[in-house]
Amino acid sequence: MKNIYKEMTLDELKKAFKDKKQELFNLRFQHTIGQLKNTMQLRMVKRDIARILTELKTKEVK
Asked: Which fold is adopted by the domain 4-61?
């Protein structure tokens, strides 16, 4: 699997991070009220956030 976040600019990564955090909030809310069918989505979004943060740190160091 290719990491799409390596090709993004710093601004694009920050926007993607903000979007993923919002998506995670929405998924957690759906999970709490029992509307989330696929709980694997939570894990996938958390991993995407970790990938984004990793790329942000490496680009900020450069």
From this structure: Helix Hairpins (1.10.287)
Q: Give residue limits of the domains in the chain.
A: 4-61
Q: What is the spatial distance between Cα 52 and Cα 38, in angstroms, rounded to a whole number?
A: 22
Residue whose C-alpha is closest to residue 42's, from 34, 54, 30: 30
- Residue pair 57/6 in contact (Cβ under 8 Å)? The answer is no
Whole-number pLDDT of residue 61: 87
Alpha carbons 2 and 13: distance in angstroms, whole number: 16
For 11-49, how does the pLDDT look when each residue is reduced to its tens digit (9 = 90+)?
999 999 999 999 999 999 999 999 999 999 999 999 999
